[in-house]
Amino acid sequence: MAVTEAERRAMTRAIELAVRGPRGANPQVGAVFLSPTGDVIAEGWHRGAGTAHAEVDALSHLDPDAARGATAVVTLEPCNHTGRTGPCALALIDAGVRRVVYALDDPGATSGGGADRLRAAGIEVEAGEQADAARTVIGDWLTAQRLGRPHVTVKWAQSLDGRAAADDGSSQWITGPQARADVHRRRAASDAIAVGTGTVLADDPLLTARDGDALFPHQPIPVVIGSREIPETAALHRHPHALLRFETRDLQTVMRELHARGIQRLFVEGGPTLASAFIAAELADEILTYIAPVLLGGRRLALTEIGVGSIAHARRLIVDERVQLGADLLVVAHPEDASAATEVTEEGS
User: Cα angle at 20 between 288 and 124, to 5 degrees?
Assistant: First the structure.
């Protein structure tokens, strides 16, 4: 059975509800229940670890037996495991729903499989409705579940001719205030922000997320990667969170440690050496390039070696978005072959 117009509207609403929940170790999920005639009879969303999942939250607003024959529209495949709460797939079966429409498969080894359990109970299941829109909400959680590492955004600012700084090393500011404000909003949406020791020594960044002169309520944890010593007077020591320091060049080790600390979204901001290392290691899930209409020339390229020896081996990207920010242009892209994203293994290979 094809997805109905009422179910499409319900999925749009479920995605709106999902973002009401807090970002954290658990995914943001929304749910809408429809009567057999297509009317909305209940809504719910996941409010954080240990609380009812979206489907159960929605069911809690219904009288007993009110969900019999209903359709549950959910942004993520109903879970199939018992953790702090019971399996949502079983809750839907017990409630007597007739049909379930969801956007994204749950990739979890223990939490996935809810759709099969629902089908085995005789419930109609339709998967993939508005999957791209739902992925924008929980893409970082999906990466962490699938690959065992944080979702990585690599950002840089550059001149029109691809330079990250002038020949004397000065780089503040290539882009204008609107582009910089956008960067700070994206920092605030991240769990951690990473730079190399070269950036710390050259720019002495605070690594905070600021709204004008004020700090955003959520601050990313500062991460520094590299072997050079950081001065005790470095500005990042004044960050609200304690610095995470990695002197290894093994990014797989860094990814494992960050994942173990519950970091799901990592914002890699500088400089060219670190950005290039993440791209070369196929660890970049998203790339943000802020392009300023200036020419700098010289040797200080925005990227260095990324493991491309010929045009046949070029790292091809799919452009997701182009945003004009004052005089600057932001290009948002992701690797063409998303399935090539690197899984962090115990051996670090």
Answer: 95
Ramachandran bin of 297, using left for φ above 0, alpha for ψ from -120 to 50, beta for the remaining angles: left
Please give the tally of structural domains in the chain.
2
Domain end among 137, 170, 187: 137
| pLDDT tens sequence across 74-94 | 999 999 877 666 789 999 999
Q: Determine contact, residues 159/174, Cβ cutoff 8 Å.
A: yes
What does DSSP say about strands 328-335 and 30-34: parallel, antiparallel, or unpaired? unpaired
Cα–Cα distance between 95 and 80 in angstroms, integer? 15
Last residue of a domain, one of 137, 163, 179: 137
User: Could you tell me which of 274, 283, 275 has the C-alpha nearest to residue 249?
Assistant: 274
In a domain, 142, yes or no: no
Instruction: Quickly count helices (H) and strands (E) in the chain.
Output: 9, 15
Provide the CA 239 distance to its chain's centre, in angstroms: 23
Q: Which domain holds residue 326?
A: 148-340
User: Which residue numbers are catalytic?
Assistant: 55
At residue 346, does pLDDT exceed 60? Answer: no
Q: How many residues does the chain have?
A: 349
Torsion of CA 98, 55, 265, 330, to 10 degrees: 60
CA end-to-end span of the chain, whole Å? 44
> What is this structure's pTM?
0.80
Q: How far apart are CA 253 and CA 230, in angstroms?
A: 20
pLDDT tens for residues 284-298? 999 999 999 999 999
Residues 153 and 131: their CA atoms lie apart, in Å, by: 20
